[in-house]
Amino acid sequence: MTASSNVTSMDLGNTLPTPEEINSAADALTAIENTLNGDRSLDIGDATLSASLVGLITDVLSIVARGETVTIAPLSRRMTTQEAADFLNVSRPHLIKLIDQKLLPCEMTGTHRRLALKDLLAYKAKRSEGRKAALQEMQDIAEDL
User: How many structural domains compose the chain?
Assistant: First the structure.
């Protein structure tokens, strides 16, 4: 894949990394760590990767080095209702209710609903915060007893 290729998403989650890929990722992590600049940037030929880009690359390499799979997608990616339901670990009918209740925005493409990954991530974070708050409230009540 060249830098000029137009990648909209990459799913490496269908297959586990091979032992060679695991070793290669681990070796690459070591090489990166040994050649980082003082500000955690990385010089590659005539280019310099910022510390945040180095962090992203090392995160991906760390996942592969552990033998796990990874999916990379832009926040603008549009998902079908079934993909979105699977992502949120809810049923498709429940997802449709969330859309109808205006808890999740969607766009219509003809007669089909499409949801932005960024909106799903925001909803998931909000749901997680709500769960944490409820758990904290239960802990506070338990301590008062």
Answer: 2
